[in-house]
């Protein structure tokens, strides 16, 4: 069967897994039945335990679903500690359902897959050796990739039923009141883990820092927590995020950032009280700096910034140029540390941030979203999941959610990366549908989605802003790098990319080498 | 054209290609290592082989380590390595390009 972005989906996999093809980014007003966790009642005494092994043995069974968060990123010690024991204890057929996977987890997951401990995975993304392993057919069942908003939706409606959540935190009291803002391995917002704490049957906190009761502010609350396990060290603070965010000196990135700023300033959305989301890439950070100057020059302040937060965004908050920061995760130390200092840096959970099936998520209040792309095609479909070799090396993140919600979604990308074209006739994997994308900014010019004639009219009056068609950008790229030989895949589906409503927007096939 | 020594040109920087040419007797024997081999391996092989033939080399061992170089770079590096291998660098044969 073919879906609405013209991707051929394998009949057998779709039927076996009872999946629907992607139809539209307009989700309407369906009525959704949510599920609730099973609660083992306790007065909350004696939650603190020394033996993680005993906790696992008395709560985990073969075939269950376990979850983790990725807020520690590459400074995570929680995941490997837990997985080592689970592998040692000889569990089988577990489903791994973390908010996302980081590089430090890769080797342990591959080991667990090879030993039959993990047989299913759902995640926002994966990279490095694990992406390579899965793309070469290392896991029998297809991985399901879900956006942050879709994971929240799936947990709420029971598509992801978490039996045991293992959540690392830098601080907790003996009852399980915990946050990500104090302690040694501080990462700031606990946004993604809050879903697990709310919906998992069993919630196990791991921490190296147990403080006297009660610990506030409590992001995870005592009424949600079954166990508090004391460990030696929960994370490496130096590897959680880059210490100081550097301002790019790459002339190509600076030019793109300047053009993005021009696009924003000349759009109908640049007025007092506007809102925006930027990512963590070099160009995105530079945009924040240019935007700051434009806001000062025009005497305009923003009502909020949302998303993965970086220090430059927090600086805007402290300067009074942004009124609130809606913070689902922090990308660097500056942003993580400032959460405890700034009352207006509001922690939000993944549902509040981006869930398509609730009563309104923050992304729906968003004016401008600036997102990146590994590839974008002439229909404006974006790939942030597979490289130009067809191998999994990315994450959906909040890409689909933010693009669907924002009034103007801007993709920033260099025309080519090395010998790989970024603007292509057809992306390897569709992650975000072109109907959600409004503007593409490359160093060679700005392409506006033809359905946004209003933006074309607004930008065509701007001196110095080069408007080109996306077809022309694709041809420019092809002229530089040549026509690549099409990649070869086997018939086997190794991963399914869901759209935020749970429909299938594309599948990833096993690469042929 | 006779190969007199081993000629090397290019670096291992991104968007460059390093070409090493030494004596061979069995046509152009190319050992290609490229980040974009799946998509552009055939094209890179064609450019290197054609450049060497135009230059007048029928037999050579070529080791190419590609970091995503464009065709114009591949031609230039191949010619430079060939001229160094044949010790003819004094008179650049730019018409080959």
Automatic annotation (TrEMBL), chain B:
Modified residues (O-(phosphoribosyl dephospho-coenzyme A)serine): 14
InterPro entries with a match to the protein in the record: CitD, Mal_deCO2ase/Cit_lyase_ACP
Location of the protein in the cell: Cytoplasm
Subunit record text: Oligomer with a subunit composition of (alpha,beta,gamma)6.
Stated role: Covalent carrier of the coenzyme of citrate lyase.
The protein's name: Citrate lyase acyl carrier protein
Coiled-coil regions listed: none
GO cellular component, one term: cytoplasm
Main location: cytoplasm
GO molecular function, one term: lyase activity
Organism: Lactobacillus gigeriorum DSM 23908 = CRBIP 24.85
Pfam families listed in its UniProt record: ACP (PF06857)
Family designation: Belongs to the CitD family.
Keywords from the named record: Cytoplasm, Lyase, Phosphoprotein
């Amino acid at each position: 069967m073919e879906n609405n972005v013209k991707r051929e989906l394998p009949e057998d996999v779709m039927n076996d897994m009872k999946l629907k093809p992607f139809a539209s980014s307009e989700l309407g007003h369906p009525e959704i039945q949510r599920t609730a966790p099973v609660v083992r009642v306790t007065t909350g005494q004696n939650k603190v335990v020394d033996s993680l092994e005993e906790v696992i043995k008395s709560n985990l069974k073969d075939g269950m679903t376990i979850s983790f968060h990725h807020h520690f990123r590459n400074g995570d010690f929680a995941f490997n500690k837990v997985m080592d024991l689970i592998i040692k204890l000889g569990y089988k057929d577990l489903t791994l359902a973390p908010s996302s996977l980081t590089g430090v987890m890769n080797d342990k997951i591959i080991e667990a897959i090879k030993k039959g401990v993990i047989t299913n995975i759902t995640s926002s993304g994966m990279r490095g050796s694990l992406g390579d392993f899965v793309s070469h057919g290392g896991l029998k069942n297809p991985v399901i990739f879900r956006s942050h908003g879709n994971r929240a939706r799936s947990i709420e409606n029971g598509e992801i039923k978490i039996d045991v959540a293992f959540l690392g935190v830098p601080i907790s009291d003996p009852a399980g009141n915990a946050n990500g803002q104090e302690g040694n391995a501080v990462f700031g917002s606990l946004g993604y883990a809050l879903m697990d704490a709310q919906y998992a049957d069993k919630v196990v906190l791991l921490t190296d820092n147990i403080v006297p009761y009660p610990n506030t502010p409590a992001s995870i609350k005592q009424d949600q927590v079954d166990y508090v396990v004391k460990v030696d060290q929960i994370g490496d603070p130096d590897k959680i995020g880059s210490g100081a965010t550097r301002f790019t000196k790459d002339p190509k990135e600076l030019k793109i950032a300047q053009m993005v700023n021009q696009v924003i300033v000349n759009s109908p959305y640049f007025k007092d009280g506007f809102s925006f989301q930027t990512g963590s890439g070099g160009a995105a950070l530079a945009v924040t700096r240019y935007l700051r100057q434009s806001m000062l020059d025009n005497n305009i302040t923003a009502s909020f910034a949302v998303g993965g937060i970086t220090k430059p965004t927090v600086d805007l908050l402290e300067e009074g140029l942004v009124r609130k920061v809606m913070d689902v995760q922090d990308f660097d130390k500056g942003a993580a540390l400032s959460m405890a200092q700034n009352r207006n840096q509001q922690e939000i959970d993944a549902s509040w941030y981006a869930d398509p099936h609730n009563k309104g998520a923050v992304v729906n209040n968003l004016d401008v979203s600036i997102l990146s792309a590994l590839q974008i095609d002439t229909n404006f479909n974006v790939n942030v999941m597979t490289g130009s070799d067809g191998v999994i090396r990315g994450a959906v993140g909040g890409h689909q959610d933010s693009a669907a919600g924002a009034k103007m979604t801007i993709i920033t990308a260099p025309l080519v990366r090395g010998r790989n074209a970024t603007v292509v006739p057809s992306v390897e994997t569709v992650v975000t549908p072109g109907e959600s994308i409004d503007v593409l900014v490359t160093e060679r010019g700005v392409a506006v989605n033809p359905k946004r004639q209003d933006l074309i009219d607004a930008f065509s009056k701007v001196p110095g802003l080069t408007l080109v068609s996306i077809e022309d950008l694709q041809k420019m790229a092809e002229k530089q790098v040549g026509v690549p030989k099409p990649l070869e895949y086997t018939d086997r589906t190794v991963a399914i990319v869901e759209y935020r409503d749970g429909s299938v927007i594309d599948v990833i096939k096993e690469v042929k080498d | 054209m006779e190969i007199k020594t081993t000629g090397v040109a290019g670096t291992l920087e991104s968007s460059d290609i390093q070409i090493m040419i030494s004596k061979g007797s069995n046509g152009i024997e190319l050992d290609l290592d490229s980040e974009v081999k799946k998509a552009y391996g055939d094209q890179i092989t064609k450019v290197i082989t054609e450049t060497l033939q135009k230059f007048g080399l029928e037999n050579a061992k070529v080791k190419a380590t590609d970091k995503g170089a464009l065709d114009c770079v591949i031609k230039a590096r191949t010619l430079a390595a060939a001229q160094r291998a044949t010790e003819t660098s004094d008179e650049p044969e730019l018409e080959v390009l």
